[in-house]
Specification:
Helix content is 69%, strand content 2%. With 258 residues, the chain is mostly helical. It has a single domain, classed as Four Helix Bundle (Hemerythrin (Met), subunit A) (Up-down Bundle), CATH 1.20.120. A two-stranded antiparallel sheet has the order 1-2. α3 (61-88) runs parallel beside α5 (130-146) and α4 (93-116) runs parallel beside α6 (155-169). The longest helix has 28 residues, at 61-88.
């Protein structure tokens, strides 16, 4: 008997992998701008497939494993190859080793998530999420293009590659915002912050998105190194001491109450 699977969420996951493969092909053809946009689309479909699976109650082990395999293509291989061909190739061996380090850390991050997904906190990620790492790579290309900068042989991008790989496999806690329910009533300040962020991005979208994404990665690393916002240790429940009462005393107490 053939295996039955949920079609809709897995089709969306396949779209995620399609855009990752698209990014790889366009990176090889030196069309780095389109490769970056493809990674962004892959991230959108990655976000969408999980939402659809939960909304339609169609989550499954097959879908979870398939999603991780597609993520390795879209958020590991695609940005790793993009970084190498766009900026790191002039560094020679250190350049392709940096790109490999990024891809390997992405694979390790996904494998760790799969075995720990039932025990990790829902409101925090353990390590930088792989779609965010790929988003930083894609937005860096868009930002450099917008600023008319040459990314080739950039020491800053080389350092960023190693940083992204490191924070993906670190134990640093990154806020997931999954506990923020925008369908519920929230304090007025949340709307003000949202409007401010939209206005900030609108100043120069390509550049500001790169700055915001990279700040998210760097601040998580800084907070992790200095133990800022570390999860509080679980406190053991207080032990309750029981006073043992003799049977005769218990009978006397009952008689007095009656």
């Amino acid at each position: 008997m053939g295996m039955h699977i949920y079609v809709l969420p897995n089709l969306l996951t396949t779209a995620n992998m399609f855009f990752g493969f698209f990014a790889i092909i366009y990176s090889i053809n030196s069309n780095f701008l389109w490769a970056s946009y493809a990674i962004v689309f892959a991230a959108l479909f990655d976000l969408l497939d999980g939402r659809v699976a939960r909304w339609t109650n169609s989550t499954s082990e097959f879908g979870a494993e398939y999603d991780s395999l597609c993520d390795l293509v879209s958020f590991g291989m695609a940005p790793g190859l993009l970084l190498f061909l766009w900026a790191l190739e002039p560094f020679g061996r250190i350049g392709w080793l940096a790109a490999f380090f990024y891809v390997a850390c992405c694979a390790l991050r996904l494998a760790r998530f799969n075995v720990q997904k039932d025990i990790v906190e829902k409101s925090f990620f353990q390590g930088l999420p792989t779609p965010m790492g790929a988003g930083i790579v894609a937005s860096s290309v868009l930002a450099f293009e917008d600023l008319e900068l040459d990314g080739s042989r950039s020491w800053g991008l080389l350092a960023m590659t190693f940083l992204l790989g490191f924070v993906m496999v670190s134990n640093f806690r990154y806020r997931s915002f999954k506990d923020l329910d925008l369908k519920q009533r929230l304090p007025f300040k949340y709307l003000v912050v949202g409007v401010f962020v939209f206005a900030l991005i609108a100043i120069r979208p390509e550049v500001m998105l790169f700055v915001l994404f990279l700040s998210y990665a760097v601040l998580g690393a800084v907070f992790g190194v200095f133990k800022i916002g570390k999860a509080p240790k679980r406190q053991h429940p207080p032990q309750v001491e029981f006073d043992f009462v003799e049977e005769d005393d218990l009978h006397e107490t009952v008689e007095m109450e009656n």
